[in-house]
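The protein record now logged underneath.
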Amino acid sequence: MDWKTTQPAADAFKDRVILVTGAGQGIGQAAALALAGAGATVVLMGRNEKKLAKVYDAIEAAGGPRPAAVPMDLAKAGETELAQLGMVLSKEFGRLDGILHAANGFAHLSPLANQKLDEWMEQFRVNVAAPFAMTRALMPLLAESPDAAVLVLGEHHGLEPKAFWGGYAVSKAAQHTWVTIAADEWDKQENLRINLLVPGPIHSPFRTKTHPAEAWSTLPQIADIVPAILYWLGPQSRGRSGQVLRFDASET
């Protein structure tokens, strides 16, 4: 089965509750809309309330299950906020069947000599520490789900580091280590899985920021990766955990 192009069955996510971080734009936004279209109740998380509101309205206009919006800045969120998130989701929905960690912390491209401690710390917090802590805080809900999936969006410079990517690439490399450890610890829990999906070069707001002169028409579009996201968050991927999935690679 080619997970990159497989379309989910109708209502594949019916009655499932999926949390999407970075849901206000880019891949997170597209995934949230597609998940709702497949029947999921989507919890939208992001820093910008106006952007979340637009996605919320788009889901309702398309007739999807009524979503929820949770404004949160992962660069600032602490244990208290994450614990409260778990209580809110438990009270409002009584379940959680998946998390898409699509939020992306990025400072800028520069030589290591010009990068600052605070920039590294914020990127680590958004890309690794906050997703880890959020997943841990929500584990009681995930563990109760009959089929729970956590999908982390990586970046290919985390696997193939290059000059000028500095703290960002290092934080993205750390995602792989976290996913590997979590998958190993969850090995005996057949209802839980976690994987790392690396989009590769794709036309997105992030890619536009890092490669402003690039001809975007030569790149895969955000819509192209959505089926892969739904596959790894949905029932078709059950039993597959701890994998690094290269969307830009030839293997399936």
The longest helix spans residues 117-137. Strands lie at 17-21, 41-46, 68-71, 98-101, 148-153, 192-198, 244-246. The chain has one domain: 17-246.
